[in-house]
């Protein structure tokens, strides 16, 4: 019997990035998705929910999503999984990028496991299929729980918008193609947590997101 996912959103960094604590309701085993910073706040949320974190997941390599991953890995003693290898250049340059934006000092991070299209990630009793969705960044991935009709989409798609494509490695046509060919076909009933802003459903985005019409 697949587990039931529970999620708590912890906004971090001046970019108000949705770091997400996801766990399986039955076992209370979970993962931290995109720990971009404010690690004490993230750890307080873990303690408050009583979650046993077994891994850190990264949707992509941008500083607001990944800058705290290496330190949190050290604090919790757990592996980092994701994103796709194409974002290695972003993860390697996290210290420089954090300094450019005036953020807290960051460490580069090398994941314990790179993820690719078709891979599977296990979190407690939850199973996530991996979609490689380049365009916002070359190595962006989406985590999909088909059983629970739920996805963690990073900055691929937002409620009413899509990820920026004017950053290094961005590509607007690639992003639109990834959303239309990989994400929307998951089904209108699939709920998603994006990297910023409110949650939504793929059905709402398919009919009303101005970037996805036509």
Can you give a write-up of this model?
There is one protein chain. The protein is of the alpha+beta class and 214 residues long. It has seven helices and 13 strands. The protein has helices spanning 39-49, 63-66, 69-76, 88-92, 94-100, 172-183, 202-208; strands at 5-12, 17-24, 29-33, 52-57, 80-81, 120-123, 126-132, 141-145, 150-154, 157-158, 161-162, 191-194, 200-201. Strands 6-7-8-9-12-13 form a six-stranded mixed beta sheet. It has a five-stranded mixed beta sheet with strand order 1-2-3-4-5, with helices on one face. A two-stranded antiparallel ribbon has the order 10-11. A hairpin with a 2-residue loop joins strand 6 (120-123) and strand 7. It is globular, with a radius of gyration of 16 Å. It starts with a strand and ends in a 6-residue tail after the last helix.
Could you provide a short overview of the structure?
Helices cover 25% and strands 28% of the residues.
Summed over residues and divided by their number, the pLDDT gives a mean of: 97
Extended strand count: 13
Assess the beta-strand content as a share of residues: 25-35%
Rg, please? 16 Å
Name the structural class.
alpha+beta
Strand count, sense and barrel status of the largest sheet are:
6 strands, mixed
Spatial arrangement of strands, main beta sheet: 6-7-8-9-12-13
Order of helices and strands: EEEHEHHEHHEEEEEEHEEH
The count of helical stretches stands at 7
Give the terminus-to-terminus CA distance. 40 Å
3D shape = globular
Uncertain parts = none
- Portion of residues in helices? 25-40%
Cofactor: Zn(2+)
Organism: Methylobacterium komagatae
Keywords: Hydrolase, Metal-binding, Zinc
Protein name: MBL fold metallo-hydrolase
């Amino acid at each position: 019997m697949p587990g039931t996912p529970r999620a708590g959103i912890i906004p971090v960094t001046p970019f108000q990035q949705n770091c997400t604590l996801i766990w399986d309701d039955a076992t209370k085993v979970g993962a931290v998705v995109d720990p971009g910073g404010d690690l004490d706040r993230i750890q307080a949320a873990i303690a408050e929910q009583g979650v046993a974190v077994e891994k850190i997941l990264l949707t992509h390599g941008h500083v607001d999503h990944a800058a705290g991953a290496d330190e949190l890995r050290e604090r919790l003693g757990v592996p980092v999984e994701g994103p796709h290898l194409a974002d290695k250049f972003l993860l390697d340059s996290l210290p420089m990028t954090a300094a450019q934006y005036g953020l807290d000092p960051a460490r580069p991070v090398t994941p314990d496991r790179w993820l690719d299209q078709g891979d599977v990630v296990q979190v407690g009793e939850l199973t996530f299929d991996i979609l490689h969705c380049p365009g916002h960044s070359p190595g962006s991935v989406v985590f999909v729980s088909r059983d629970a009709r739920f996805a963690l989409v990073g900055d691929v798609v937002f409620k009413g918008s899509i990820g920026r494509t004017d950053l290094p490695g961005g590509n607007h046509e690639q992003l639109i193609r990834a959303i239309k060919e990989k994400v929307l076909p998951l089904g209108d009933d699939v709920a998603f947590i994006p990297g910023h802003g409110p949650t939504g459903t793929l059905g709402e985005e398919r009919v009303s997101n101005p970037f996805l019409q036509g």
